[in-house]
Fold these 3 entries.
Entry 1:
Amino acid sequence: QVQLVESGGGLVQPGGSLRLSCAASGFTFRRYAMRWYRQAPGKERELVATVTLTDSTNYADFVKGRFTISRDNAKNTVYLRMNSLKPEDTAVYYCNVPAFNAWGQGTLVTVSS
């Protein structure tokens, strides 16, 4: 079955950086688009970034220029590099395969001084 395991979250100061990873299994990774979502406390889950099977990328306006999504098909892993983090980026970040509506367990990112 499809499994997604996120890692890399933690506490970081404003202006800092983190790289999230999502290890995928149970499907032919290179054939599918991958996404990162996030959900802040008391808010709905929102789409952060998408990477297609051809490495095209799309970003939500609130992360453009700060976050970078990428994939390594040899490792069945998708990444989210987050720079210039702000307190409003605090959320649980989830990996998603839209074709299967599959989700990971999430990884918490807290941006605070």
Entry 2:
Amino acid sequence: QMQLVESGGGLVQPGGSLRLSCTASGNILDYFDIGWFRQAPGKEREGVGCLSRDTDRTQFLDSVKGRFTISRDHDHITAYLQMDNLKPEDTAVYYCAADRPYTNQPICAMAQTSYDYWGRGTQVTVSS
């Protein structure tokens, strides 16, 4: 059973950057699509972005396009969410998730129901 642990959250000023890490144990992330999600207080959890296992193509929520990127580390067990030009509305608990598609999929999914493995989240607060 794979487990995921997020790290790298914290308090940052508007316009600043953070890099969140998602570290896996029990399996390697090369076999999985990676999804990042967030949940702000009083709101539903939403998909932020994802990275395809098979093509390395990414998808992002419109409000973060051009500011967030997702990548994998060469260590095979870590994925990252790089967040630049952060805004107060990016404040949320951020979760990483992993999905192992049964067939080759050129595009990753942004739907939460597609993901089987989840971390417990890390808090990101953007405030001056």
Entry 3:
Amino acid sequence: VQLQASGGGLVETGGSLTLSCAASGLTFNNYGMGWFRQSPGKEREFVAAISSSGGSSWYEDSVKGRFTASRDNAKNTVYLEMNSLKPEDTAVYYCNAHGAPYVWWGQGTLVTVSS
């Protein structure tokens, strides 16, 4: 299984970015997908998740109303639309695919929000 995250970059406070995570090697629509992030000196934390069908999603409180997770099962890709970005959103963002008992992680993509 491979998960390839992309779309990170440098953005000003208040700006927007959309991350993508392309999956291969798994039956994509069988698995929930998640987004996590890790800032320097901090543990990796949950950001958002979306169900296998895309019908349900969940968010960490600090990103509710600003971030939206979506997926295109025809393209084996999950997205994280990030709006109203804040400096505290600066982190390496990781996607995962999960379905008990399996969890796979992709490499991260760096998001830097300048103040």
